[in-house]
């Protein structure tokens, strides 16, 4: 049973394209996150939603737009992809909104922009 | 602004050794701290979560300690095994925010 799943696992695309990454969790958690891990393996938070409400929005270009149709799903849409967007994107979830708790990560989506 | 540093960046040890991984943070007003393990090409797995009021947490061969006042946490791995080879990351949850700040990781290799 996959707790946090992401699709696709790999994504290779051309500069300027628009792409989406989907994330689903079956843990019944209230909070979901998107992280970006760059080529130096540095992991940084991008967004967080609690019960479909945006609670963290880091300094991320507005080409990145998260969408949470329900609390089990958090998708990431990226417009006008750039070379610097190449990275691994991780989705994560945790129980509780205002409290920081154990985070469960998905397997990652490896995005390569050519 | 919270900054999290992990030293060393990489470590190789023979099987059976006990080892310590270090994590330092600049702002002592933390809510809690997590240690994660990341295998190549995989997501992160939470190993231990230690609350700001705790001094240590244990799980099997792993023991995490926290010294808030000095801005340090250590992850102790007893009797290391080749299966422990992975990158270990610490993440600091800062009070008043909903987010974790991650360290740069320590890449551990345990040699058989």
Number of E strands of chain B:
11
Shape of chain A: globular
Largest sheet of chain A: 7 strands, mixed
Shape of chain B: globular
C-alpha Rg of chain A, in Å?
13 Å
- Overall residue-averaged pLDDT value of chain A: 91
Order of helices and strands of chain A: EEEEEEEEEEE
Name the chain pair with the biggest interface and residue counts per chain: A-B, 27 and 22 residues
Helices and strands of chain B, in N-to-C order? EEEEEEEEEEE
What is the structural class of chain B?
mainly beta
Task: Please explain how this structure is put together.
The complex is a heterodimer of chains A (114) and B (112). Helices cover 0% and strands 55% of the residues of chain A. Chain A is built from no helices and 11 strands. Chain B has 112 residues and is mainly β. Helices cover 0% and strands 60% of the residues of chain B. Chain B contains no helices and 11 strands. Chain B has strands at residues 4-7, 10-14, 19-25, 30-38, 44-51, 56-59, 62-67, 72-77, 86-94, 100-102, 106-111. In chain B, the strands form 2 sheets. In chain B, strands 2, 4, 5, 9, 10 and 11 form a 6-stranded mixed sheet that branches. A 5-stranded antiparallel sheet of chain B has the order 1-3-8-7-6, with no helix packed on it. The A-B interface holds A 4, 31, 40-45, 48, 50, 55-56, 58, 90, 92, 97-108 and B 31-32, 34, 36, 41-46, 49, 87, 89, 91, 93, 97-100, 102, 104-105.
